[in-house]
Specification:
Blueprint: H1 2-25, E1 27-28, E2 35-36, H2 38-49, H3 51-66, H4 86-103, H5 111-140, H6 147-156, H7 159-191
Antiparallel strand pairs: 1-2
Amino acid sequence: MKNIKNIKNLTYCALFVALITAGAFIKVPVPVVPFTLQLLFTMLAGLLLGAKLGGITVSIYVLMGLIGFPVFTEGGGLGYIFNTSFGYLIGFAVGAYVTGLIANKKSAPSYKRLLVANFVGLAIVYAFGTVYLYLISNLYLGRAISAWTVLLYGFFLAVPGDIALCFLAANLAKRLIPIMQKDFHLYKGLKG
């Protein structure tokens, strides 16, 4: 029966890797800053799979991109670490872990808990993303960029859409968690 649980977990992880990949290419047309659905699926990975599996799932996505699969918005490959947006990808993995940690402290998390978890995860994504953008631009790429410009383009112009995704992810998770728990209880029933 442990094999059934492992297969179920592998299936969920693979599903979320696929969703995150698809989310990278679902671009919502907004002025100035490209907006994708990656954040939605990385948050849902943490909320629905938990901290460990959510973090592992997003890390697998990042690793797939680094070994050359074109799963990132601008392709893939090891050279992607020199892309100014790579910090956001690191933030996705850490954010999914922390989101899952906060949300899953309770077996039936409230909408408020799910939303708080999402906003903490969002803060982590933007912290990693903006700091990486500033450092890689100024220290490696030789493109002097001010902290204000990084905050303007890397945070202020991008965050409104991601705030909406936080609400959407909390709503989806509130509806999906009971379904996934029911699936888990069916699994436990098979063991007996």
